[in-house]
């Protein structure tokens, strides 16, 4: 009787406890419903991350009373968890054995459970998946070879030097060929060890190359001895020290190795599996006698480490038994590496030490070399004064002239497959945005005024400098950069801009770059830029006629006609000297000779730039190109007159306004037709002719404002030479109507 009373009391207690837990669940996740009949999913109300439960303790608890555990889901900051089984019957067996019971192994207090219809979509922190570039080859060595490897090193015998081996906090280690320095995760290439890789491993080394795990034989080996409960902190082997492949051979016991994405400080989107505040975390089980091969992203962008614990949660092979708890045993890992001769070509600014050292060297040289520092400072100011500020001022007029996409750029944009992510660097007014409805496109530009125009058109854009793109690494499938790079004043800045495009591209992603070409003729064929100049004429002595200042030319390669930049019948052009932040105009260049004399660069870094005459061939690479701004008030006058004309037309064509009024309006219109006709013809002809004449009358030069934009026009091969310094391969290089163009693909 007393025993039945205790049992009844325990049941009532369990019912109250699980009721409280269910109330918390329904408050947090109202979409999950409690089920009165057994399902595949069990809600564990008082075992979660905030109660110090983890995968190991839950697997131990469940496997001690049942089987068929398929998955666990633990949510950050929650006291509960979820267990999923292969079938409802196996879930029911665990529920009956564990719900409300105290004597369950792995639990210090009773656990309270309930059946639910589903589990949260948020995944469990544990992922039995491989990061990209990782391969695990099982049974790479035989049982006999495993025994030989376990006995290869006498761990009781102290090494001769610290460089050859030591006893670390969590393990013992031996080095061969070169010492792996754990404080920097690198080696000292100039100080190899006297001990090479043991000859007893020669057949295993040969097998590594024969099976294509490494293209060349490794020359560095680190052997780690792990006892149960020991591990190694997460790390990325330095890029500059070793080549593309890192190999880890496991003998003795198996272990879970943790891989975490380290290629960016922001969250790397990996199929939605990253948490809100954490990068992706994959767990890979390395069974005994297996070889783990890390290449590509797994080698360069993912850290690897081993958590110190006594057991591992392992997904059984084929999933028949679900998750299992595996006790750890003594394990030896043989890590094979090949020393890199040159620097790493990748340019990941967060994990590549070669790239970081290069940038630090550039910065240091700039500090130690006054000329270079002045050059970079002057380049930045030149771009600010003659690129950024100019485009902000002419944005409206500029946008009117940029409306027709160039065919080969449009072809590239429209060739992208469904779901691609496209970035337009220097998108201007968004001329190339919105054409491919199958992709998601974003744009950026340094001109805030042009970005306002894009916003009014509904495009997803932001304001930034192309030298510092505010996007994470390896996120875009494609990038385009049309007529932007030629506005950067130094080679290093032009290279940095393309490098930023490469950084944000995924491996295999493609980029398209257009720059203005110095060569505006291909054989006898003129570019569109030169063809549109039908006003400037030269005599036999190559001097321009005095009347040319009255003719019309166009801004750049677009459609709006404006007056010439300078009225200089003597044949001399303007020369602008950019010095100490001031602009001074100096007459002294003779265009008739086809050459430009350039003042020497002074000690203070001052540079002299000529002002180019539109629609003429380029005679040097760096120059200022004029833009003549069309006064807004003249446009308004034309619009006003056009409006008056339309009103007069509407007045005498009353049928326009009255056509919806039916037959009575039609009769009135017919009756008034004869009297309307004469008055309309007289008035309308006068107003329409006035409007037509206004459109064809040249705009007076006196009130027009001229701006000068900096350009560096590219010679043939110059763009390809910049790309050759980056981790890309040039897929296509071509000439398109006065522009040099490159399509490249990111390779690493």
Structural class: alpha+beta
Low-confidence sequence ranges: 265-277, 536-555, 557-607, 633-700
Shape: flat
Radius of gyration: 37 Å
Tell me, rounded to a whole number, the average pLDDT: 76
Q: Report the end-to-end length measured between terminal Cα atoms.
A: 75 Å
Strand order of the largest sheet: 6-14-11-18-9-8-7
Largest sheet: 7 strands, antiparallel
Please indicate the percent range of residues in DSSP E strands (runs of 2 or more): 15-25%
SS elements, strand count:
34
State the helix count. Answer: 16
Helix content: 25-40%
Textual characterization of the structure:
The chain has 16 helices and 34 strands. α7 packs across α8 (370-401) and α13 packs antiparallel against α15 (663-696). Strands 6-14-11-18-9-8-7 form a seven-stranded antiparallel β-sheet. A seven-stranded mixed β-sheet has the order 21-20-19-22-23-34-33. It has a five-stranded antiparallel β-sheet with strand order 1-5-2-4-3, covered by helices on one side. β16 and β17 (323-327) form a beta hairpin. It is flat. Helix content is 29%, strand content 25%. The protein is of the alpha+beta class. Residues 265-277, 536-555, 557-607 and 633-700 have low confidence and may be disordered.
